[in-house]
Amino acid sequence: MSTPDVPESYKQAGLFMLISGVMNLMVGGVAVLMGLSTCVGTYGLCCFCPFIGVIPLGFGIHELMVASQMQQGRWIATAKGTNVAGLVIAVLTMSMINIVLEVLAMVQLGQPEAAKYLEEGAGSAMDWS
């Protein structure tokens, strides 16, 4: 079975998602630290506050794993879904840089070469021979 050439737009989308994943890690880390300081400042009355940053922090790790594999040219089934979820988290955390990076990655994944590569990869992933 021959593997198709990896389009540059797919790798470029991986680069945008990689940078956005690092930004999600930073936003999540800062949110956890702010929540911890709020918990300490209110003498434990706001102990749920550190958990506000857990979702961006956890998703940042996931996005880094997916984007690094995209950068290497591996076919990732969840590339588009990870991109959309990253856009939702970027909007919820109001991070303008992340929003721009996720939209740029979405545009790159929508290019005809990248879309064809994702479709061809879906067919080869089901081929067990």
Q: What's the short story on this structure?
A:
The chain has 5 helices and no strands. With 129 residues, the chain is an all-alpha fold. Helix 3 packs antiparallel against helix 4.
Radius of gyration: 18 Å
Number of helices: 5
- Proportion of residues in helical segments: over 70%
The total count of strands amounts to 0
Average residue-wise pLDDT: 87
Low-confidence stretches: none
Shape: elongated
Structural class per helix/strand content?
Answer: mainly alpha
- How can the largest sheet be summarized? none
Q: Termini, distance in Å? A: 9 Å
What order do the helices and strands follow? HHHHH
Per DSSP, what share of the residues sits in E-state strands of 2 or more residues? under 5%
Overview of the structural elements:
The protein is an all-alpha fold and 129 residues long. It has helices at residues 8-41, 54-71, 79-92, 96-109, 112-125. Helix 3 runs antiparallel to helix 4 (96-109). It is elongated, with a radius of gyration of 18 Å. The chain starts with 7 loop residues before the first helix and ends with a helix.
Question: What distinguishing features does this structure have?
Answer:
single chain, 5 helices, mainly alpha, 129 residues, elongated
